[in-house]
Amino acid sequence: MASQNTSRLPQVIRRYGEVAEAVNHREMRRFVEEIAHRWKPPPHEEEYRCEGWTHEGAFTKTIYQEALNLFGGSGRCHSPGATEAEVHEQIQISPSLEGLMDFVSEPLIEPPLSADRRKVLLENIKAGLKQQASSLGVDATNLELPEDLDVLYSTVMGINAAGVPAETNFTQLVYAHDERSRAPDEMPYEMFIRRDGHLGLPDLICALKVGGCEQHRSIYYVLTVPKRTTDIPAEAKWKIWDLREVEHEEYDSLTEFLEHETRHVEESRGGARLITTNMPVHPATVHFPLAFLSLSFTLDILAHTQPSLPTILSSSSLLSPTTIHTTSYSLLALGLLASIPAILSGVQQAILSISKQGLFEADGKTIKEKNKVLISHAIGSDLAVAASTWLWWVRSQEVGNVTPRGWMVGVEGLVMGLLFASASGGGSLVYNYGMGFSSLKTAKAVQAKKRS
């Protein structure tokens, strides 16, 4: 198994902690402002209000509920002198809105584990992963854990996602583990179904869930091999897999993963927010040019071979050469118009994918397999559209006659083959690599955090 460079990991962890702390304050201010902008409690005529009710107290209670899922605020108030509204939990005076950040978990969960505790933890994890591999028929004698796990737990105990807790679904990038923790003896089901190249991914020997939430996100450290094996070969690699539904992002180490997460929460509105309101546009636009262009070319090929068709077809007025060629020409124009939003949305999605995960593998030279498919899909599609545009232009020069010449029909056949090959690449990106999948994310309920 390839060795890792772990020297930068402590620095990367500390940098993430600094950025995440600032993001927590930024996003909480943004969240409070958004709630304040929409704050319209019903008038007192429509809502029974106990003695002592105030807008400020009701607003504070709402913020605690919505941001932290602390329904009931900090608990029922029994302090001497409490108003009736406080006792019946209609408002919240203490803790105040200014104390909200006291209820937001620090980004870095401390203290880190001592050397003895780390040793026990890593031995427990290793034992569980070996059992996973053995249950799959793999000799795990020479299994070694990723080197950065020891560095991680010598720096922190765990790492929280940054942002408004309810919006991040209380995600932990790294769960807080201690010497009592261990990896499960069986591979988690969501990883087991990804074995044997399912979804176009490499085979898995074992998987350790290092973070995530209970709704839509799971973060795993997985030991991957190119194909099924009965032992652990030298080319086996530890990878971080960040899964959102079937969407899959891959990193070579915790250092790379945390660097990406640091950039993401710092630059993104919402930080690590899991709420997605927009689906990719490209899948909704790509089918129209494919359908119009392929049907256009099919009609021209049909007209060209009409003499060879059965009499009942070749004699039909609906299948006359003039009708077919006029229809195919119109479909060709429609296909080219429909290709404009498909290409623009495809370029936008490709740029987003590469900017998030990078173009190259960790060596900085080898293009990632997913990006190879992406590039070939883009080139094939662009060539097909360019050739179709050229065919349309040539046919449009014949005033009053849009009938394609014989050699054009041959070119159309080649272009249609290129279209289908490119479409196959696009399907591979979706179903083999999970590109473009996203879903609405919701927050989960958690126990109230005790005030420190």
TrEMBL record:
Pfam family, one: DUF2231
Domain of life: Eukaryota
Transmembrane segments: 329-352, 373-393, 413-434
Domain DUF2231: 279-437
Cross-referenced InterPro entries: DUF2231_TM
Entry keywords, A to Z: Membrane, Transmembrane, Transmembrane helix
Protein name: DUF2231 domain-containing protein
